[in-house]
Design brief:
By secondary structure, the protein is an alpha/beta fold. 35% of the residues lie in helices and 18% in strands. Strand 8, helix 6 and strand 9 form a beta-alpha-beta unit. Helix 11 packs across helix 12.
Length: 396
C-alpha cells in the first residue's frame, strides 16, 4: 500500500480551476458605483434645479428698466394707492383729570377727512429690544454734521420709534430722568449698570464715547435723551461750552450748533436743555430751534429749573411735543434727602396723575433712585419713559 507520507508538500496534487476572488468582485462593483455617481453629478450640474425665480415677460421687464421703477406688486399698490391715516383719525379724543388724579380718556367716533378707503397705520411705539442699539435708517439723514434724526417716509417719528413702551393703564405714572451721562466715565457706567431700565437717561452732547454708551443704554432697555447746551443767565461766567446756543447769535448759527449736537448719537426720543435759563426765557431765540426739533420728530424736555422759561408757550405755538420737569431730585447730595424728594415727586404724581423728576448721574442719586424704584411698583406706581408723559399735539 503506497503512502505519500514522505513526499514533499504540495507535490503531485491535482490542479483545480480557480474562481475570481471576492476582492476582485468588490473592486468591480466600486468602480461601477463611482461611474454612476460621477454621471449623475454631471447630469444635475448641467440640467439646473428648476428653482430659478420666474422672470417677467420681456416687454414688462424692458418697461421697468426704462422707467427705473421696480415691478408693481400688490403690496406697493396698497401702500402707494391708498392714503394712510393715523389710528385716531376717526375718533374724537377727550381727556379729563378726575378728583383723585386719574386721567380718563374718552373716545367717540367722527368722520375722517376725505372719502374712500384709507390705510390705517397702527405704528408700534418703541423698538424691538434685539435692535434697540441700532438706529432705524429710515429715520436718519446724512448731513455735514453727521446723521441727524428726521420723520420717516411713513410719518414715523424718532420719538415714537425709540420711546420705551408703557402699559397705557390708568394709574400713577412717574418719569425719572438721570442727566449728564457721558461727562464722567465711571458715573455713566454705573448709571447704565445699576439703574432700572425704566429710568430715562440723558446724554450730554459734549460727553465722551457717547455712541458706545448710547448703545449700552439702549441694550439695557433705557429710553434716552440728548442734552444740548443753552445760554444761562450768568453766561459767560458760567459757560456750558464752545457750541452753546446763545440769544445773541444769528438763528443760522444756533441751528448749526444744534445740528452738531444732534449728530453726536442716534436713537434718542428728544432734546433736553443743559442749563439755558436765559435762552429759554427768550421766545425769539427759542422759536426757530423748537421748530427744527419738531420738524425732526423729537420732543423737548425742559428741566424745570428756570421760573422764566417760555417752553410751554413756544412749544404750543410750534406744535412741538414737550414736557416740563416737576422736581429737581438731587439739589442736596445725600441719599436720604434724595429719597425724600422722590417721595415728594410721588405726592405730585398722585395729585396730577403723573410727574417728572430730574437728577444727575452722581453716586448718591443713583443709589437713592435704584432703592426707591424697587419699592415704587408695590405702591401702584408705574415708572415710564419721559416720552409717555409728553404733551403731544399728535396724540392729545
Amino acid at each position: 500500500m503506497g503512502t505519500d507520507l514522505h513526499a514533499p508538500l504540495g507535490r503531485n496534487r491535482k490542479t483545480g480551476s480557480r474562481r475570481p476572488g471576492v476582492l476582485r468582485v468588490g473592486r468591480i462593483a466600486a468602480s461601477l458605483c463611482l461611474f454612476a455617481i460621477g454621471g449623475f453629478s454631471l447630469y444635475t450640474a448641467f440640467r439646473g434645479d428648476g428653482l430659478e425665480r420666474a422672470r417677467p415677460p420681456a416687454a414688462e421687464q424692458t418697461a421697468n428698466e426704462q422707467s427705473g421703477t421696480p415691478p408693481t406688486t400688490a403690496a406697493n399698490q396698497a401702500a402707494n394707492g391708498i392714503p394712510r391715516a393715523d389710528p385716531r383719525s376717526g375718533a374724537n379724543v377727550e381727556q379729563t383729570v378726575t378728583g383723585d388724579g386719574s386721567v380718563v380718556t374718552k373716545y367717540s367716533p367722527r368722520p375722517r377727512d376725505g372719502s374712500g378707503p384709507v390705510l390705517v397705520d397702527a405704528m408700534q411705539i418703541g423698538q424691538d429690544p434685539r435692535l434697540a442699539a441700532q438706529p432705524n435708517e429710515t429715520l436718519l439723514e446724512e448731513t455735514a454734521f453727521g446723521r441727524l434724526p428726521i420723520v420717516g417716509p411713513d410719518g414715523r417719528r424718532p420719538m415714537d420709534q425709540y420711546a420705551r413702551p408703557s402699559s397705557q393703564a390708568r394709574g400713577i405714572r412717574i418719569a425719572i430722568v438721570v442727566s449728564g451721562l457721558g461727562l464722567s466715565q465711571t458715573g455713566t457706567q454705573r448709571a447704565i449698570a445699576e439703574l432700572p431700565e425704566e429710568i430715562t437717561l440723558a446724554f450730554a452732547a459734549s460727553g465722551n464715547s457717547l455712541q458706545r454708551w448710547m448703545q449700552e443704554a439702549r441694550r439695557g432697555g433705557h429710553e434716552i435723551l440728548l442734552q444740548v447746551p443753552l445760554e444761562p443767565f450768568d453766561y459767560p461766567a458760567n459757560d456750558p461750552g464752545p457750541e452753546t446756543l446763545l440769544t445773541s447769535k444769528p438763528v443760522a448759527r444756533n441751528i448749526e450748533n444744534l445740528h452738531k449736537a444732534m449728530g453726536e448719537i442716534t436713537n434718542y426720543t428728544g432734546i433736553m436743555n443743559y442749563l439755558g435759563g436765559r435762552f429759554l426765557s427768550d421766545p425769539a431765540a427759542m422759536e426757530p430751534v423748537m421748530r427744527d426739533i419738531r420738524k425732526r420728530g423729537l420732543l423737548f424736555l425742559d428741566d424745570g429749573t428756570s421760573a422764566q422759561s417760555k417752553t410751554a408757550a413756544v412749544a404750543k405755538g410750534t406744535e412741538l411735543p414737550y414736557a416740563i420737569a416737576d422736581l429737581q431730585l438731587d439739589g442736596q447730595l445725600d441719599v436720604n434727602a434724595i429719597l425724600k424728594k422722590l417721595d415728594e415727586l410721588e405726592r405730585v404724581a398722585r395729585k396730577n396723575g403723573q410727574a417728572i423728576g430730574i437728577a444727575s448721574a452722581f453716586d448718591e442719586s443713583i443709589d437713592a433712585i435704584a432703592k426707591w424704584s424697587e419699592e415704587a411698583s408695590m405702591r401702584g406706581i408705574e415708572i415710564v419713559g419721559v416720552a409717555a408723559l409728553s404733551n403731544d399735539p399728535k396724540n392729545p
